[in-house]
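Let's do one together. I've listed all components of the complex below, 525 residues spread over two lines.
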Amino acid sequence: MLLELDNVSSFYGRTQILRNIDFGVKKGSCMCVLGRNGVGKTTLLRTVMGLVDKMTGTMTVSKADVTRARTDERAKYGLGYVPQGRQILGNFTVRENILLGTFAKTGRDGKVPDICLELFPYLAENLNRRAGELSGGQQQQLAISRALAVDPQILLLDEPTEGIQPNIVAEIGETLRMLNKKLGISMILSEQHIKVARDLGDQFVMMDNGRIVEAGGIADLSDEMVDRHMTV
Amino acid sequence: MDISSIAFANSLILGLSIASIFFVAALGLTVIYGTAGVINMAHGEFIMLGAYTVYALQAFAGIPYFLCIPVAFVVVGAIGFAIEKSLIRYLYDRPLDTLLATWGVSLVLIQGTRLIFGSEPKYVEIPQFLSSNIEIGGLSLGVFRIFIIVMALLLAAGVWFVFYKTDFGIKIRAVTQNREIAASFGINSGQVYSFTFALGAGLAGVAGALFGALNIVLPTMGMGYVVEAFLTVVTGGGALLGSAIASLAIGELQSIFALVTNSTFAQFLIFVLIVVFLRFRPQGLISASGKRR
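Okay, and this is what the predicted structure of the assembly comes out as:
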């Protein structure tokens, strides 16, 4: 396993959010994290990044124990994070946002990585534009680009299609497919669009109330399961 | 009231000089407050330490004044770094505690300096040419005041360069805008805060090296400058450009008010104006970050 969580629980203050999570991502695979709003999907990704107040259990990346590692140290194990709501730095230029990602990269040369420019030509043509001026879809491209600048082993994508126009959703889905299937970048994808999850995913975990309640290959994700755990 | 054009021009130049002093005094505080949100009550004492560093270097090692300025930056920066590592880092996100702790630090620094150097005033020597005056068309200004204006411009350019043209600057601005996201991309915010605090303290040290030559050097000399620094930073909003505009506005207005009234009433008017301004724009002229997380 490239990334493994063993009996992980996590907390914000004294409030426990995740309960006894066992979870693994194989090299080159895409793991979909599914469930309704508020079941703990975002907290699961934030736990992997070390962005919760407290975590118990163990976490490894490429067999290295990172349980006690700070967020900035975890990022250097090759975790490329695309947070919910994008969280690009609005006062930064496009170039500076992408360069931010390179601080987690080993062998940093201070240049915008080629892959970021090739994948998103609009960003390449607007490197000096203020990121806050970009549209939602362009900001999502920038958030993905910033995570790619880490030269990641694993991309952690927290609802990358949330609030994006339908035509851009397909475009982003296609980009993620290419990154996963052609470049072999592993992914943890938290997603509400079940079609995107089915298109991209190899495995899935279904969450409810901070626990994993179903898990398996994406082919095992039945409509009945989706209705039971994802329909409001 | 008849104010001659020469008197008015003199007043504008004096205003520029006051503005440069306000700006130099506020620069370090701007860096620390704008980045980490720390209200550093010991800022005036960092300025005082800069002045004493220059005095000590001159008195005990005979080092020339111009060489003392960068040394003051390094010495006070190192002291700031040590204080951040040993105290401030435990108090982030607790503004009241930080305020009290830095006030305590300021008292320790004043008493410590008094124990080492005594209470009697010390003097910083400057090269002869800096002590002279320049007169152009009836306008008169001390060369040392021009030197402070030049230093203010150089320091502003230096800080701008660090913030906007270096990797460290990207790190500082990223941590200021969104600490979680900065950390998620490999930036150690604790380390950034330590070095930023050291940078701010070092800039205060440079301010002290300048002000020590402008006035006498005393353990309590920082108390006056810290008021000017806070006025500038709060009015400016914590951003570099905000502090530059605020110091220019305060300096020029104070000088013009002093011309038409007197210096005491001018200061009173400035304080009133700042209070009224902050009543309607509490975030200051230019906020350092939209939302510090």
